[in-house]
Amino acid sequence: MSRSFPFQHFLKVSTNPKEGLFAEDQPSYKKGEQLELEELQSASPKPQEGCNELEIKALNEEILSSLKDTVSLDKYNAFFENLQIKSLKSNEIRFSVITPFIKTMISEYFSSHLDEAIQQSLGKPFKVLIETEDPKPPKEDLENTTQTVKLPQKAPSFTLKSDYAQKNTHLDLIPTKEDLLSKVESKYIDHMQPDQNGILIDPNKTFENFIIGPSNNIACATAKAVSSNPGKSGKYPSLYFYSDSGLGKTHLLHSVANAIRLQHPSLIICLITARDFMNEMINAIQNNNISSFRNKYSEKIDVLMIDDIHELKDKQGTQNEFFHIFNELHDKGKQLIFTSDKAPKEIVGIEERIKTRLQWGLVIDIQKPDLETKIAILKRKAYELDLYCTDDVITLIASSIKSSIRELEGSLIKLSAYSDVMKMEIDADIVKDQLSLKGSDKKTTDLEDVAKAVSQYFKIPLADLKSKARSKEITKVRHISMYLSRKIVKSTQQEVGLFYGGRDHTSVIHAVNKIDQQVKTDTYLANTILEIQNLL
Fold this sequence. Notes:
Elements lengths: L36 H6 L10 H18 L2 H8 L3 E5 L3 E6 L2 H10 L1 H12 L4 E6 L13 E4 L8 E4 L15 H16 L24 H12 L9 E5 L6 H15 L5 E5 H13 L3 H11 L2 E5 L8 H16 L3 E6 L11 H7 L3 E4 L5 H15 L5 H10 L4 H18 L5 H8 L11 H12 L3 H5 L5 H18 L3 H7 L5 H14 L4 H13 L1
Parallel strand pairs: 2-3, 6-9, 6-10, 7-8, 8-9
Antiparallel strand pairs: 1-2, 4-5
Helix pairs in contact: 2-5, 6-15, 7-8, 9-10, 10-11, 13-14, 13-15, 15-16, 17-19, 19-21, 20-21
């Protein structure tokens, strides 16, 4: 970044040579001394060599206009109002902001909004770089409105009238309470919607920190037995865990992988999600390299663990490859472990021959934890987070949250973040307020509650539901959210439309009617809506 003095902030430069150097207040020069206009113009760097400044300015305005549609006015004024494009290349766009705080906030919490605005304006994604420009004036006393500037190349000294101190410019960059609470909510959502793409073995998920109770003791004991003696030499060469989401299946997979890696370092372990397995096969087909894909899984792997095997439903090609890989690994005595949200026979869209093979091994159901186990889980998590909670607070959370272990841990992550940003110790009132616990003072379900429940269920950001995005996936989920808003909250069509991005009431009518017709014939959709209602 150029460190030249920012003349453009103080001088009004005329581009007409006949008018002299300035449009106002031309300075006097000593004989033989001349200040070149080009030197002043070069003090302000161009956005990009060969790039039209007017085009850059128009693009900047278009991106800012898009951002106004996707973020609130307060956040736009705080973080995007002074966003400026510095350079634009074939696959990279560089912005400048005025403080490191704004740079951090955009990078950590609003990058998706910026990426969407860039794609809308330029038609494709770009790598985004953000740099900071310090707008502070020199360290002289700001009350003094005159500054002496020495120009290079023997230019004369002269005095500039600076209006910097006279301008009443105020940027309130201190985060508001709403901004801090938004940060708390972001940590909670990140925990509740873990990114499983490109899954790697997590060294932090072990048997040592897996809380055992009546609901999972058989599953844990079996997993330990497999990790000690994997494959055909052990008791369970094929293992299948199933349970509702968030009850510890994935933790068990990582625990087994870590234990095998420690006790049998020569064995090759593959821990992968069903979705990544499918994508890997598709890429192999596209690259005419399916033989390498088959060879990898059939010849090189000793322990194959696939998480969420139910996601192979209705994927006939992937199921066919999986069928042959399963047979070869099983015949060779390799270790096979799978997880799902349903028992093999209950998965719709999976071929019978695959269901049969998934049931060859030991099939174990993991139930929801009892109160004592939940208390133990919460105490362990509080210790990891270095969060002090009284036994009464722990018991309150454990007795109120019944859905999953992930929800239990997520509640503590949210409370820990709240304690950090608000500098407050956690008590029962804060727990009830932050976790919206339902008790004698039962909280009425509102539009926000419905939207959050739908967002968490489908793993789609809440901001996307409220945005103007029209992708097929987001539109369908938004329709479901509108349908539930009318059914549960009894909000008017105008209120629902206003909540979801200021849409017209006719859009709400269309969404509600469409879902109402589909649930009459689509059993899967009807069950999905029922599950979301139960969450509320």
